[in-house]
Design a protein that fits this description.
Layout: H1 6-22, H2 28-59, H3 71-103, E1 106-109, H4 115-129, E2 136-137, E3 152-157, E4 160-165, H5 168-171, E5 174-179, E6 184-188, H6 189-194, H7 198-201, E7 206-214, H8 228-239, E8 244-250, H9 255-264, E9 272-275, H10 307-310, H11 315-321, E10 324-328, H12 334-345, E11 349-356, H13 364-374, E12 378-383, H14 391-404, E13 407-409, E14 416-417, E15 420-428, E16 431-439, E17 451-458, H15 461-475, E18 487-489, H16 493-509, E19 515-520, H17 526-537, E20 541-546, H18 557-562, E21 563-568, E22 573-574, E23 577-582, E24 585-589, H19 595-599, E25 601-607, H20 611-625, E26 631-633, H21 651-669
Parallel strand pairs: 1-6, 8-9, 11-12, 12-13, 14-25, 17-22, 19-20, 20-21
Antiparallel strand pairs: 2-4, 3-4, 3-7, 5-6, 7-8, 10-17, 11-15, 15-16, 16-17, 18-25, 19-23, 21-26, 23-24, 24-25
Helix pairs in contact: 1-2, 1-3, 2-3, 12-13, 13-14, 16-17, 20-21
Length: 670
């Protein structure tokens, strides 16, 4: 095939998460967190990607996708790969994670539970859960309508069947049974039910867990004469009743019972996915924290200062003197939120415009914008309500900001707004001066603690004038924007990147060495992949870091030689996009090289002119390309082999040094 299918490539990425679970160099509780990440990733994958293939297979015919694969083939491959991965995950969990916890005095009771601990479980049930578990008999039910993602216990008592929905929200999932100086015993609520079922039905009853995952796509009725917010709200209600895409069940359930359950849920056989005794491993995000056992966790590193702002009593002047580069989580995102807060209370600020793609319910950014609107400033917010799984939060903040007096827009026909930016207009000596923030990650202070991203605060008119053009378009889709310096999708980004690569090809043909450094989350767009191949064939070298999906595969010896792709999985989620397209062209961007980003979204790539920052970005990519601890080679086989390297620190640990050195440089220069 000419391309690797995006979903099979994504499974290879989730396999790299498994490698972190398996790594003895990762602290034990962090390995447990990677278990949760793997499970959470897979859950979303089934709700979105697998559901879309089932939908295409059922309603659109088994037609080949743009990579040349049929849904039936992809679904078959997914089932095979996921089955192998989950078997491996089970071995890691029971053979390494659970014994490791026990060695640390954390006795996580799961699997085989001895008689002494069963007595503790029965006692806990009698004291805390007696009469809590309400069984629903479903023996004679012809059909069942069950909640999306909820864990159910299927109870078989002879020829009778019962269901119990596990209410983790009210009951909790992880119960501390016993605690002393030597050890802590923890059990799952599932087992409190399982080992007390005899008190409800007698000793012959058997208990097996299962869950269903439903299609999470929002199918918006374009014919409805309603605004986008009302349409989204209606569609969100249907998400819990969407087409089932997976029935995950305890592999020990006798086939006749799981088959009967399958029929009651109106599922086909391909929806059946065998699993272990327990499901929803992403709940391990909520596993108890043991602050006295610091060796079980990543050691927290002190965030680096921002000398330009810390040493200034006037941030406007500091930003006006020189662009402020920020790197999270190596530096605090508070610099961004604090600057916005200053603007809300500043009488000179007249207008604030921003995009919101993913925003938390307790957003500091949202609160600052609300305050600005209440203070009488003109506030424009583009809240992207089609940001999957953040629709409710974005609508919440959009409506709240509207009530405060802001102008809020929720959508543009056929385009998502994925750019991460805000623009502040401040009157200084009678003239409006603009200040801007441009970033690679969401305006979300929570994810900024765990996502590795970059951003700049600036008053450089080369940025602010183009950004003003972006917001004019967002406010009025009929406006025809013009850009001189920013690369903005879908207007100029693809064309400008393509032109830069073609210039490199011309130079390579002329005998000049051409090396392009690119860092992305995903490389999926067939047009860009074909261009990379064409350039590699004439000698252009691509040094690429691609964290997740990578559909590239070499079709010639030159392509294999000249294109190196590495993925880094580590403590922080690599989220920065960097395009180093020539000695004079280095960009930070919100856009991956996916068709949807380049052609179906509002995205911004912004140039970096500061030589010190350019050097930092190139060193970051270089360290990641040679990270022999956390870097994996991306190839057609998808075997995730470690990069050959002799580094003592991971590339993320080097980043702390790079950011610290940049701050020293800025301080000395002042």
């Amino acid at each position: 095939m000419k391309y690797i299918d995006r979903d099979l490539s994504w499974l290879s990425f989730n396999g790299r998460i498994l490698q972190e679970i398996a790594s003895p160099n990762v602290p034990l509780m962090e390995r447990l967190k990677f278990v949760a990440i793997y499970s959470s990733n897979l859950e979303e994958f089934y709700k979105v990607r697998v559901a879309s293939h089932r939908f295409a297979q059922k309603y659109k015919g088994d037609k080949r996708n743009k990579y040349g694969y049929r849904p039936s083939y992809i679904l078959q491959q997914i089932n095979t790969i996921v089955s192998e991965q989950q078997t491996y995950l089970g071995k890691l969990f029971y053979n390494e994670i659970v014994p490791g916890l026990a060695d640390a005095g954390i006795l996580f009771l799961c699997g085989h539970i001895n008689a002494v601990d069963r007595q503790l479980i029965e006692k806990y049930y009698d004291e805390h859960f007696k009469d809590e578990f309400k069984l629903l008999e479903v023996t004679n039910e012809a059909s069942l309508n069950l909640k999306n993602q909820a864990i159910y216990q299927l109870v078989i008592d002879g020829n009778r069947q019962y269901l119990l929905e596990m209410d983790y929200t009210n009951w909790g999932r992880f119960i501390t049974l016993e605690e002393n100086k030597q050890y802590t015993k923890i059990v799952q609520i599932d087992d409190i039910f399982r080992y007390n079922i005899h008190k409800l039905l007698g000793h012959g009853a058997e208990v097996y867990a299962f869950k269903i995952s439903r299609d999470a796509e929002l199918y918006i009725d374009e014919e409805q004469d309603e605004n986008i917010v009302k349409k989204i709200k209606k569609s969100l209600k249907k998400r819990d009743t969407g087409l089932p895409c997976r029935l995950l069940f305890n592999e020990n359930i006798p086939f006749k019972h799981i088959n009967a359950l399958r029929k009651k849920l109106d599922l086909d056989m391909s929806s059946l996915i065998a699993g272990g005794t327990y499901h929803n491993y992403y709940d391990f995000f909520e596993f108890p924290v043991f602050e006295d056992r610091t060796h079980l966790y990543y050691q927290s590193e002190e965030q680096q200062s921002c000398s330009q702002l810390d040493n200034s009593s006037d941030w406007y002047q500091a930003i006006g003197d020189e662009d402020v580069f920020l790197s999270y989580p190596y530096q605090s995102f508070n610099y961004v939120t604090d600057f916005l807060k200053f603007a809300t209370e500043d009488d000179g600020v007249e207008e604030i415009s921003t995009t919101l793609y993913r925003v938390s319910k307790t957003s500091e950014i949202g609160l600052a914008l609300e305050r600005a609107a209440k203070n009488g400033k003109r506030v424009f917010v583009f809240s992207e309500v089609l940001a999957r799984f953040d629709e409710e939060s974005n609508i919440y903040w959009g409506e709240r900001l509207e009530q405060a007096g802001a102008v809020v827009k929720y959508g543009i026909a056929n385009l998502k707004v994925h750019a991460k930016a805000f623009l502040i207009k401040r009157r200084e000596k009678g003239i409006l001066k603009s200040y801007a923030y441009l970033g690679t990650g969401n305006l979300n202070e929570k994810t900024a603690r765990i996502y590795a991203d970059h951003g700049i605060l600036t008053s450089d008119e080369r940025y602010t004038k183009d950004l003003d053009e972006v917001f004019k378009f967002l406010k009025d889709e009929q406006y025809q924007p013009h850009f001189k310096h920013l690369l903005v999708a879908p207007f100029t980004l693809r064309k400008k990147v393509t032109n830069a690569i073609r210039r490199a090809m011309e130079k390579a043909v002329a005998g000049e060495k051409q090396v392009l450094h690119v860092k992305l989350n995903s490389l999926e767009d067939p047009e860009m992949i074909d261009l990379i191949r064409e350039a590699a064939d004439v000698g252009v070298q691509f040094q690429m870091v691609v964290r997740g999906i990578c559909c590239y595969c070499p079709l010639s010896k030159a392509q294999k030689k000249n294109v190196k792709i590495v993925s880094v999985i580590d403590k922080y989620l690599e989220h920065t996009r960097i395009y180093h397209l020539s000695e004079r062209e280095t960009y930070l961007a919100s856009a991956d090289w996916m068709t949807r980003n380049l052609s179906g979204r509002i995205e911004i790539a912004f140039p970096i002119w500061d030589a010190d920052v350019q050097n930092l970005l190139l060193q970051q990519v270089s360290y990641q390309l040679n990270d022999g601890i956390k870097g994996r080679i991306i190839n057609s086989e998808g075997d995730n082999q470690l990069v050959e390297g002799n580094n003592n620190l991971t590339s993320q640990e080097y980043m702390h040094e790079l950011v610290a050195n940049l701050q020293k440089t800025k301080t000395i220069r002042k």
